[in-house]
Amino acid sequence: PTMPYSGDCLVGRTLQGMSKDMSGEPMYDIYNAYWGSTTYADDFVSAALLGTTDPGSGVDFGALTDAQRVELAMKGVAYQSTWIYALHEYESAIVKCEANSLDDETGAPHAWDEGWAFYAGSMQTEGESDGYLVYALAEEVCTNFGTCDATSGTAQANEMHLAHAISGLAHIRAGNCE
């Protein structure tokens, strides 16, 4: 299904389309090598929905209940598809920056903002776990791993990611692409 946003930046994008072959992008290449598939996220989600075996993880979704399969499909979308797509948008911003495409609406800054958007999601409130994407996961599990900020209670991963996203955007806007 098409993502439920009508803005020009997301028209025509699908959740399945986020699991495209992005060979040549450093982080994607790591995930591709690990899972052994250029469409590893779609493979996982599709196998969960169809009740078949995921070739990358070897999980036999047919042995699970419908509720378990739906839950895993949703987790696959949230934590695999959108995560790698967030990284893809950051990579895209760097490429656009190197091509001197620095317009806020269509160039590198726009792609950089989309990287953060796919990490946090539109439902997220800072420091809460009320969203559905990677930011919310970090908030949910930081207590388990001892990675919550002692003062704010926010996941340190989210604090660091946001700080780097803000800093990176300033660098991108200044044309400092590396």
Helices and strands, with pairings:
Elements: H1 26-35, H2 40-50, H3 66-98, H4 108-120, H5 134-145, H6 156-173
Helix pairs in contact: 2-3, 3-4, 4-6
Cα-atom Rg, whole angstroms?
17 Å
**Pattern of helices and strands:** HHHHHH
Structural class: mainly alpha
How much of the residues is beta strand, in percent? Answer: under 5%
Characterize this entry briefly:
The protein is mainly α and 178 residues long. The protein has 6 helices and no strands. Helix content is 54%, strand content 0%.
Overview of the structural elements:
The chain is mainly α and 178 residues long. It is built from 6 helices and no strands. It has helices at 26-35, 40-50, 66-98, 108-120, 134-145, 156-173. Helix 2 (40-50) runs antiparallel to helix 3, helix 3 (66-98) packs antiparallel against helix 4 and helix 4 (108-120) packs antiparallel against helix 6. The N and C termini lie far apart (35 Å).
Task: Fill in the keyword field for this structure.
mainly alpha; 6 helices; globular; about 0% strand; about 180 residues
